[in-house]
Amino acid sequence: MGFPQISFQVRTRSAASPDEIARRVGKVLGCGFVPSSDRMFEPGEALEAFALGLHITIRHDPEIPEGAQRTYMVMGMLRGDLEARWGDDAPTISITEYLLGLLRLCDGPDWYAPTLEEQLQEAGLPAE
């Protein structure tokens, strides 16, 4: 059995810029965000940071123009270079509730955990 790993996913709706959201999240988490070089994102589509062995990303729907209300998704998962070494049988522990509390206490009450329905809709899958 592999070591347990952690992950999280929190959201906020805001008209702030991606850089402002990154500054706020970075202040709470103690890390700095830069434009993502991950192949799963188009250039300029996401910001990323690395902390506690996690790859943390901030992204939003690029179709929604700057200055408009957007849903920002902040997700953390095991860094890709560690994932294969951890093994497929490694249990994942969600720290979403911890991060949610931290962001609400240190940044504001607008942070929330996405529902399963919201996640399925974003993935283009039918809600159960």
The helix/strand series, from N terminus to C terminus, equals EHEEEEHEHH
Q: Helix count?
A: 4
Provide the residue-averaged pLDDT: 88
Strand % is: 25-35%
Domain count: the total is: 1
What is the fold named in CATH at topology level? TATA-Binding Protein
Relevant terms:
128 residues, alpha+beta, TATA-Binding Protein, six-stranded mixed sheet, 6 strands, 29% helix, 28% strand, globular
Describe the protein in words.
- The protein is 29% helix and 28% strand.
- Strands 2-3-4-5-1-6 form a 6-stranded mixed β-sheet.
- The chain is α+β, with helices and mostly antiparallel strands and 128 residues long.
- It has a single domain, classed as TATA-Binding Protein, CATH 3.30.310.
- The chain is globular.
- It starts with a strand and ends in a 6-residue tail after the last helix.
Short description:
This protein is α+β, with helices and mostly antiparallel strands and 128 residues long. It has one domain: TATA-Binding Protein (2-Layer Sandwich), CATH 3.30.310.
Provide the fold topology.
Layout: E1 5-14, H1 18-29, E2 34-35, E3 46-51, E4 54-59, E5 70-78, H2 80-86, E6 92-94, H3 96-106, H4 116-122
Parallel strand pairs: 1-6
Antiparallel strand pairs: 1-5, 2-3, 3-4, 4-5
